[in-house]
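Contributing new records

If you add data, match the layout below exactly. Sequence lines come first and carry their own label; structure lines follow with theirs. Keep one chain per record. Anything else will be rejected by the validation script.
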Amino acid sequence: MTRIFIQDKATFKTTARTYDDAGFLHVPGRVSKTGTQQYLRRELGLDGDPNARVTVYRPPEEVFAADSLASFDGADVTVMHPGELVNAKNYRKTSVGLIRGPGQQDGDFVKADLVVKDADAIAAIEKRGFVELSAGYTAEYEHSPGTTDDGTEYEYVQRGIRINHAALLPAGAARAGRQARLYDHQPKGSTMSKITLDSGRSVEVQDEATAALVQDHIDRLQKQVTDAQAELDKRQATIDGQAEQITKLQAATADDQITARLKAVTDARARAEKIAPGVTFDSIDPVEIQRQALAKARPSTDWAAKSEAYVQAAFDMAFDQVETTDAHADQKRKLAEDGAKVVTDKAKMPAYDSYTARFTQPQAKE
């Protein structure tokens, strides 16, 4: 399996923080979690549409594996992702702190203790709201489709997770869900958090972690409803398309339609035989009959590549030419017959007989 660098984003709210004598910020936070997450195919180096989404399962035995948790210890903290793993070449430009100690299981999450040392990074957290965590790590992806206990289908399983850094980001992209957040010690007293229900009504919950948990659950349920509705719409579209096809087939098999079809085929064959006498037909499609007749009458043209409209127009012109030629032939034949009749009728006249006798009978001598 190929080891791939990936980044996970996790949302959380601003928390109470502790500072040491050097001014460094110490704060624990939930950095990653188990379950399924969405990735783009290009993120995993997969073929096909690079923007297509792939569902990846992060099983607990991988997320909480001893080697994976140990990789948190000493991992760097960055502001935004550097676009690559933190290394000796980019360390001075990217690292603003570190994670102290290994990761620890916290329910479905991995908790880590962050130490932010850079003054600008601390200011970004306090004044600019850079209060999201996003883990940067490498992992292996095993193609092993399956379904989680909650019914979510996935295509790949993530294994061999090794943490490289945790990035501080502004609010927005929450790949690991709303509960992946910094802990809040609440030194200023309890605060109320709002939860927006599906109806659009908001309710307040005192415990912030509970609010995040409930909101995340609501979001997941809403997504399931949306996905189910999309699947229903897709199936309904298929049913509607089949119903339309049935209606068309019923119309096409009606008695008047069959009669019209037979007449069209018969007329096309009759006209085609005039255009190309002796042509053999292997189709009951009027247009294909026209193509076959034209192919014999005018073999220099690739009639198979011509559109139906072009074929029909050429066929009508060819038939008109044949009809005109036949009409001229009939006219000449009639004129010839009429001329022969005139000569025959004249031969039967007495005067004509007397006239011709003067030249054909011997004359008496005096």
